[in-house]
Structures are given as C-alpha cells and as structure tokens.
Amino acid sequence: xxxxxxxVTGATGKSGRRIVARLRLLGIPVRAASxxxxxxxxxxDPGTWDAALDGVxxxxxxxxxxxxxxxxxxxxxxxxxxxxxxxxxxxxxxDPDHITDTDGIRAAxxxxxxxxxxxxxxxxxxxxxxxxxxxxxxxxxxxxRAGELRLPAGDGAAxxxxxxxxxAVAVAALTEQGHAGATYELSGPQAVTLTxxxxxLTRATGRTVRYVPLSTREYIAELVEQGLPVTDAExxxxxxxxxxxxxxxxxxxxxxxxxxxxxxxxxxxxxxxRPATT
Length: 278
Known about the structure:
Ergot_Alk_Oxidoreductase; alpha/beta; NAD(P)-dependent oxidoreductase; 11 helices; NAD(P)-bd_dom_sf; Rossmann fold; 278 residues; single chain; two-stranded parallel ribbon; NAD(P)-bd_dom
C-alpha cells in the first residue's frame, strides 16, 4: 500500500466526506482538508497550501466558486510531486444558457477545468448534476422537514445524482488506472419532477412532503420575509429556474463509464440502498 496520502479538499462537503470515508475504508491514507476540518486549508490563504500538499500523491479538488485559484494551486501541487488530480466541476458548463451567471462562476469553473487539463498531471474531471441529497442534507432539507417544497420550478424535472455515486467515481479516478483524461458527466438514471421527489421523500421519511409550485416573485418574497437578503433570494430563485426549464433533465453516462454499472435511482439515494464501497 502506498503510504503517501491522498488530499481531499472540501472534506466536510457532501462529496468530500463520502470520499474520505471510502478511501479510509479501503485503507488508503487520507488528508482531509477544509477550513474547519481535520487539516486546515483555506483557498484564500495560500499559506495553508504547502502544508496540505506536502507528501501528497493525488488530490480531489473542490474549487472556490467564482475564483481562479486552481491554476496556481496546481502549479504548487506539481512542485510538491503530486501526480494525479480529480476536479469537482459541474454539468452545464458547456451551455451558456444553463443558468444565469452574474458572478462569473461559470467562467471561473471553465478556467479551472482548463487549468487541470494544462497541469501536466494525470487528470479527471467530475461533472455531477443536482445531488439527490440536496433534499436530505442540503439547501432544501429544512423545507422537507417542514413538509413543503415551495419552489418556482413548475413541472420541471432533473436527473438527480446520488452523492455516493459521485464519491465512488472520484475514488475510482483517484486510485485506479484508466481514468486519466476523462471528463465524467454524472446523473441519475432518469429525470424526476419535484412532485415525484416529494412522493419519494414521503415514502422514505414517513412524513408527508408536498411540492408547492410558486412564481419566482412569490418565492423571492417568501425568502426575503424569512430574513434572506434580496440578492441571496434571487440567487436561489435562479437555481430553481434551471429546474423549471429542465436544464438538468438530460441523462449522462459518466457513472456507467467510470464504474461499469448504472447510476442509482433517486429513490435508492434517498432510502440509502447502497453498499459502502461500490
């Protein structure tokens, strides 16, 4: 077993913590890095970069949205002898109409992907769509607990991907041969509407969850009334708008290509029907 650790940035996030757990289950040394986790790491503090990279053989890279720090970080990684990188990116980057982007997040993410491809390292790019776990441990979890998903998403659908599938793909790319130079777009096996999401959550949690479609104006007004700044409320509305327009309804073959099996369904992700290491 190689004693050099794998660096996982964003190690407390939905994909990061799952990747850390899988690597440790495999007996692989891991350096779990984040601003508040086991190993201090802060994108905005380059003084934390060297300690994070020292002795590392491979890294899972969760970029800071809207920043262009991946390129200098990879330069440092190469100097430290890192040989392999897996970048967490996102679906829709090739579509300028995918989501309204007033903060330069799309342009920065494309720059990060270009930096990875130019790095000289063995690279893999992971492009997941919406995580199924958005409803159980993410931005909409509180709404699910309250019993109502109140969103301006109309009857739009998305092919939500299991965060454990995302982690499994990353671990394969970090530890196996055959993934260098691959860009994996990740989705679930079918698109589901928010009405179907609510029904699945009802069955999984034992509490009634219903979807209440709102207009964008109603949604923003509700968030502002709850104390959110208008700009943040508008940003959340923009996310829901991509659902309404079905921008993530298409299916991607990344899980099948990377793991040799189909992706798990939304219901399987929510019910937790998944082994720990595949």
